[in-house]
Amino acid sequence: MMKVYNKKLLVNQAGFSLVELLVGLVIGLLATLVIMQVFSAFEGQKRTTTGGADAQTNGSVALHSIERTLQNAGFGLPVSADQENFALKCSPSPTVDHDGSAGTPNIGLFPIEITDGNSDTIMVRYSVTSMGSAPVKIIDPANATTSAGMALENNIGCQDNDVALISLGTSCVMTTVADANGDPDTLQNVRLAAATPGGAPIAAGAKFSCMGTWQEFRYEVLNNELVMNGDPVMSEIVNMQAQYGISATADSNQVVSWVDPTGGWAAPSVADRNRIKAVRIAVVARNGLLEKDNVTVQCTTAEGTTNNGPCAWDDTGLDPAPEIDLSGDGNWQRYRYKAFETVIPLRNLLWSKDML
């Protein structure tokens, strides 16, 4: 028997037309494009937010590291009841070859030093020995560098290779201890390094102090990284600025002005250095994401300091804030920055107004 096909049914079973397929394809592509744009915008926003959080962390940790070190400035210097034999009054301020190496510079006595630059350098000096120094009198200065050693009131607390300060009035010398027990029976004699210069202030009645291991900690920004004595501390730190907070006189602890380490304050006299009562620091951290467009513009402070970067702090009614210049990087405006600043008072007993 022959089968009869329904021609009408065959017509109703037709599929999508070419036009319908093309329209569907276009709609699908448009939806994909919108999704990708939303994803790209979200990813960029996420990276900006994450980078901002990283900059926040980096700046805070960098500033905390500097602050913690600077608060120890001067630890280990002798504090004498006789103000005429006071360490910070040494004039000129002495230096010492602390490690016996000709390849490293001598370390100075003064605990704080800022060197001006496009990004400043901060040097902090203190003893890393837990035992502070106590000054004693020199009884007999003879044989200071011989095996017998010179006689002191006592040599308690001195160790071999300690850095020692000898002061007579404002005349001072720094040297190292070669043998801290020249005479174990009397606990008096100490032999100094052979390179110790003879004569004043090494004399009977002068004050002698063993300061332990006198160290210098140097903070600077190198290759967008904060380093301390060459060791990395925190990445994406692009600038650091510092100023001295000074008093009107050495025997006052009230800060009356903020000065950059330039001009007369690049190498201040002993009298001026003893007017330094605080340090204020600004650290600039960067979000490492390079944006497509400029996102940072110049910032001008209330006192008229123009920065190619963010402003350090509000200087309204104060001495001008230091200049921050990030223009050494041709793309500096395509990065986002955050400035962190703090004031660090020098609270060590050395800076007591009664001592200076």
Describe the protein's architecture and organization.
This protein has 356 residues and is of the alpha+beta class. The protein folds into two domains: 49-74 and 215-351, no CATH class; 83-109 and 129-210. The protein is built from three helices and 19 strands. It has helices spanning 7-12, 18-70, 270-273; strands at residues 95-96, 107-108, 112-115, 121-127, 136-140, 150-152, 163-168, 171-179, 189-192, 207-210, 214-221, 225-228, 231-235, 237-246, 257-259, 276-287, 299-300, 306-307, 336-345. The strands form five sheets. A six-stranded antiparallel β-barrel has the order 5-6-9-8-7-10. A hairpin with a 2-residue loop joins strand 12 and strand 13. The radius of gyration is 33 Å and the shape is elongated.
Topology order in helix (H) and strand (E) letters: HHEEEEEEEEEEEEEEEHEEEE
Radius of gyration over all CA atoms, rounded: 33 Å
Structural class: alpha+beta
User: Which of globular, elongated, flat, extended, rod-shaped describes the shape?
Assistant: elongated
Based on DSSP secondary structure assignment, what is the total number of beta strands?
Answer: 19
Rounded mean pLDDT is 85
Strand arrangement, major sheet: 5-6-9-8-7-10
Sheet with the most strands, sense and barrel status: 6 strands, antiparallel, barrel
Provide the domain count.
Answer: 2
End-to-end gap: 128 Å
Count of separate DSSP helical elements: 3
Oligomer: single chain
User: pLDDT below 50 for ≥5 consecutive residues: which ranges?
Assistant: none
**Could you estimate the helical fraction of the residues in percent?**
10-25%
Strand content: 25-35%
